[in-house]
Amino acid sequence: MNGPLKRMALACLLMFGLLMINVNYLQVVRADDLRSDSRNVRNFLARYKVERGRITAGNKVLAESVDTGSLDYRYERRYPEGKIYAPVTGFFAPESTQEIERAENDLLNGTSPDLLIRRSIDLFSNKQTKGASVDLTINPRAQEAAYKALSASGKKGALVAIEPKTGAILAMVSVPTYDPNLLSKANKDTVNQASKKLEKDKDQPLLNRTINQTYAPGSTFKVVTLAAYLESDDTLGPQTQVNAPTRLDLPNTTADLPNHGGSACGSGRVTLSYALERSCNTPFGKIGMDLGYSTMKEQAEKFGIGGDALKIPMPVTASDFGPEEDQAALAQASIGQRSNRMTPLQMALVAAGVANNGVVMKPYLVNKIVDAEGGEVESADPDELSTAISEESAAKLREMMVNVVKNGTATAAQIPNVTVAGKTGTAETAPGKPAHAWFISFAPAENPKVALALIVEAGSAGDDASGGHTAAPIAKSVMEAVLN
Fold first, then answer.
1. What is the mean pLDDT of residues 42-68?
2. Which residues are catalytic?
3. What is the spatial distance between Cα 41 and Cα 300, in angstroms, rounded to a whole number?
């Protein structure tokens, strides 16, 4: 090769190298800056050229894309009953998505590999590609009943209802909530203003309390403690006698464990059924210490607590029994206090596991996916998460939880001609401060169609809120909506 050709080849090689460096620099180093540059609107406009699929539940449309007639912002997302279903649908904003809008985004916008055949047909027939529709397991009657009851009088809290035999989520309500329509406008400035206002709100309306907030479960966790006790000895049952002192002496501390309000629990020795009915602290604290940390943690994990992260398909914040400390801490954790932290979804799984003869089903929110022409892409296939307890232990627990509603702290959850099982919980937050009000339940007890967990946050329902007086009536209205 002569000199001029060599020089030309080297020059071309150098220019090619510089071009590759520049491309990588733009795509990697400056990518975020370019994406956020107000002059770069191509990707922004592209989001609004596709007609996203609907999100539906039962006979209701929860989210749909509406043709605006604009050449630039062709389709805008609308949420007909936005506030009620916001914890489920989430939102589709100019630069972000949330909840189902995020979890199923590639199906809703039509880019999923599962829609390849549909896209190919549209290409050859010269049709505009549309997204698939996502049909949810939500029961609109239950969702709306829960929202109405929880949002009354400025309550803060969350409710999750599940079909015990399948794991299908029937209701998922978080309050305070927000209007996703405010975040779906095809205008960045408008959406950013609305988003900043919501983010600054001290009541945290954007927080999905059902799956992304954990709380001390209070006495609802006694169901897990009692499950561990029943599993430890098959001769134990509702009429088994246990010690129930007014105060339980905790080792290596001067702070004893009292019953709620310092009250006595019967005559000091009671049946397991009575202890659960009256939600006595001292027998369950003693049971937890006797069983030991490893046994209690193992039982919690069998209900899904602290195991593999759940997706419904949105990711669920992990619940946790708490770290191993001393016996005093274990007694407190065994009655749902200390570092014991649960999401409402997790406590709904505890109720559902007892209801379903000890088997916990994987929770899921998507019933089926259909393409733009109505062809089914996929459908739900219920699957087991774990076997938490034996069928015999589940039957004993069911009997005792029925007695809690018949004769104990949850009489406000009674439904005429329906056998309801439940457990109340009043979780302390700080000395002298209002408590969280909890309730877990399922019905009908003989053939459960719905299991749920409900929390009303501390202070949002008065200083004297409790699981029995505050949470149980709300749960009753939701169960009635499902059963009727």
1. 85
2. 219
3. 50
